């Protein structure tokens, strides 16, 4: 190795400060190759420490400023009495509008609650008034029903006990028309007075044109009696005498035997469809046939109505609506003059679809 070749030595940065710099080498086989000469580092001078005058009666740190330095600053820090994030007395980032909206919502909710409570109290009061009114109405209806039952029992008792025309006429319907019928009936079959015991049936009758009741009265000395009564106003009750006795303009057996053809008569009968076509009523395309029977008799007639007549249409419609196809009606019957049919009779009119006149036929307009 020649003297000109660079020599290696250990450099201690802390112990020795090289003035001539340092050469950086790179290994190349068995020798070293100079790569870069580094200039010596310049050590930065240590900064000088600020010295402050000692302050009496206060042992603080030398770096802290005095109170007067803080007070002399133009920008004053936030007041310690202010909450964090508050400026000028309001929350940072929270506009006044939200507070107003919340307050209005709370007030509105309170007003709504008060209104609803008032409404609820009014509804409860109204409901209680309705309940009291219903109870009063029910009580009034009960009193009226009891009074009605009492009146009916009294009228039925007097009706069954009546043994003269004068006593029974004030208790019956259509007294002016019916009184002569009672007199004629009692001439043949005098009425027997009965003692009323009690009502076993009491129900309304669905009869248009009035308010009617069906009752079954038991007597102490006879058979039970089925009656139809009409309620007149609040206190009036009348018995339908014609329905009770099934009054006929002529005794049914004698009517069949005599075959009067001078005029038509209104009979209380039962009518059912039949197919007995004979004599002058043998044309089934022209006539409709019905079997006619009545109360307290085994005799029957065959009634005929023209197929295209109003009577036939009314009977067909009525028969469709009644149980077992048996119609209880008041029918106007007439034997044709010179008829050869022994039991054939013409049905001229369906007077009533029951055995009772709803209105007085003597007062009907022609």
TrEMBL record:
Transmembrane segments: 96-115
UniProt KW keywords: Membrane, Transmembrane, Transmembrane helix
Organism domain of life: Bacteria
Name of the protein in question: DUF1206 domain-containing protein
Source organism of this protein record: Luteolibacter arcticus
């Amino acid at each position: 190795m020649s003297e000109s070749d660079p020599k290696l030595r250990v450099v201690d940065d802390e112990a020795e400060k090289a003035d001539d710099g340092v050469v950086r080498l790179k290994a190349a086989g068995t020798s070293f190759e100079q790569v870069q000469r580094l200039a010596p580092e310049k050590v930065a001078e240590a900064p000088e420490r600020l010295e402050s005058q000692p302050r009496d009666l206060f042992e603080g740190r030398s770096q802290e400023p005095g109170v007067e330095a803080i007070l002399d600053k133009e920008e004053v820090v936030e007041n310690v009495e202010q909450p964090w994030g508050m400026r000028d007395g309001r929350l940072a980032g929270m506009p006044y509008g939200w507070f107003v909206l919340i307050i209005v919502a709370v007030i509105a909710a309170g007003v709504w609650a008060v209104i609803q409570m008032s409404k609820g109290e009014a509804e409860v009061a109204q409901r209680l008034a309705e309940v009291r009114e219903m109870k009063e109405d029910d009580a009034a209806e009960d009193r009226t029903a009891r009074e009605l039952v009492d009146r009916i029992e009294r009228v039925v008792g007097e009706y069954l006990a009546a043994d003269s025309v004068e006593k029974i006429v004030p208790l019956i319907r259509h007294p002016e028309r019916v009184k002569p019928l009672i007199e004629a009936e009692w001439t043949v079959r005098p009425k027997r007075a009965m003692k009323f015991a009690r009502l076993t049936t009491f129900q309304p009758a669905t009869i248009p044109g009035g308010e009617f009741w069906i009752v079954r009265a038991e007597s102490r000395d006879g058979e039970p009696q089925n009656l139809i009564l009409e309620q007149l106003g609040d206190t009036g009750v009348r018995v339908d005498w014609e329905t009770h006795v099934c009054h006929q303009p002529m005794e049914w057996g004698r009517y069949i035997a005599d075959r009067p053809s001078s005029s038509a008569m209104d009979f209380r009968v039962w009518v059912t469809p039949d197919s007995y076509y004979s004599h002058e009523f043998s044309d089934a395309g022209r006539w409709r046939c019905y079997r006619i029977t009545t109360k307290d008799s085994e005799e029957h007639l065959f009634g005929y109505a023209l197929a295209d007549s109003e009577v036939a249409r009314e009977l067909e419609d009525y028969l469709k609506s009644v149980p077992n196809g048996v119609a209880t009606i008041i029918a106007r019957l007439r034997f044709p003059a010179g008829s050869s049919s022994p039991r054939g009779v013409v049905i001229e009119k369906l007077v009533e679809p029951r055995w009772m006149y709803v209105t007085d036929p003597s007062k009907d307009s022609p």
